[in-house]
Specification:
The protein has 335 residues and is of the alpha/beta class. The protein is built from ten helices and 15 strands. The strands form two sheets. An eight-stranded parallel β-sheet has the order 9-8-7-10-11-14-12-13. A seven-stranded mixed β-sheet has the order 2-3-4-5-6-1-15. The relative contact order is 0.21. This is Ornithine cyclodeaminase.
């Protein structure tokens, strides 16, 4: 039997790779195009709750991206109270495998990948579904993915006004300061949901609620806006889905599985079904369906996270790390 080594990348190596905004967007877009072309396999995420007392759970995402030659499994822990211990709420590992033999190829720290690919999916969704020239961004939530939402959205649109809010003042203030420093522009930190979201052109909800709570009012969404709600626990009242012209999903398999997500209460109540969705985002990325078709379309894009985005971004990071010579090779099995 031949010797098998696994390529390993931790956070220090990923930081050295220093992907640019365009690197991130391009990698995730290529994964979406492959999905739209039917060149991927995406299994709905699975959840594991070790103990409700821990206030957290694991997400397990699985997929295959034919053009990249990788199958992958990502396990991400999502533990709301980690901040009390000075830890990120989400920590993860991505495992890449040879899809023909099952041989493990790489183990990569995926906490940052999760944040970047989620932000890229939000931004790419806005690229195809948002208003032509959005002026105001409203963003609720300061979790790890939130930074990349705002950074990559602003990279595409260069907003005139960015408003942010989260429940804890220390969290939202620090978030606003980081964004202001990194984006080089003023960030408006608001004290409530309405002043953050009301009348914005693009409205993002990425909260850390402990249980489904109707916080996001439909009256704040103006005609022609794009809404992207993806909090684990729904913040949307049951009447929120009325009056939208299009519903777009990242992957419809994600809406059929699990008990979490922004539209889960609406699905359970029979208000939203698979037939309600105009398209999967991969179909739009691949040019099989148009995205926004009119300025006055009001669109909701729900994404729950696609394993193909993790695999695509992990593969891009691994490629660049090889070029830099910073990959660690770990012996898995010897002959």
């Amino acid at each position: 039997m031949a010797k098998i080594e696994i390529e390993y990348l931790g956070q220090p190596e990923i930081d050295q790779v220093a992907l640019t905004n365009d690197d991130i967007l391009d990698a995730v877009e290529q994964g979406l195009i492959a999905a739209g072309q039917g060149k991927t396999v995406i299994e709905p995420r699975m959840h594991l709750t070790p103990d409700p007392a821990f206030n957290g759970h694991f997400n397990v995402l699985r997929g295959y991206v034919e053009p990249l030659g990788y199958a992958g499994v990502k396990v991400v822990g999502d533990f709301v109270d980690n901040y009390k211990q000075g830890l990120p709420s989400e920590l993860a590992l991505l495992n890449l495998f040879c899809p023909r033999t099952g041989v493990p190829r790489a183990v990569i720290d995926a906490a940052g990948i999760t944040d970047m690919r989620t932000g890229a999916l939000t931004a790419l969704g806005a690229k195809w579904l948002g208003p032509k020239k959005p002026r105001v961004l409203g963003h609720v939530g300061a979790r790890g993915t939130s930074y990349w939402n705002v950074r990559l959205l602003d990279h595409l649109f260069d907003f005139e006004e960015i408003r942010v809010h989260s429940r804890r003042p220390e969290s939202r203030d620090a978030f606003g300061e980081r964004l202001s420093r990194d984006l080089g522009k003023q960030i408006i930190v608001t004290e409530d949901w309405q002043s953050c979201l009301d009348g914005a052109d693009i409205l993002i909800e990425a909260t850390r609620l402990n249980q489904p709570t109707p916080m996001f009012h439909r009256s704040w969404v103006k005609k022609g806006a794009l809404v992207v709600p993806y909090g684990t626990m729904s913040a949307l009242p049951l009447d929120f889905t009325k009056g939208f012209d299009k519903f777009v999903m990242d992957d419809l398999g994600q809406m059929r599985a699990g008990h979490l997500g922004a539209l889960r209460p609406h699905i359970d109540a029979g208000l939203i079904s698979e037939e309600s969705f105009y398209a999967e985002i991969g179909e739009i990325a691949a040019g099989l369906k148009p995205g926004r078709e009119a300025d006055d379309e009001t669109i909701l894009f729900w994404h729950r996270g696609m394993s193909t985005g993790d695999i695509a971004l992990g593969a891009r990071i691994l490629e660049k790390a090889r070029d830099l010579g910073i990959v660690q090779n770990l012996l898995y099995r010897d002959a």
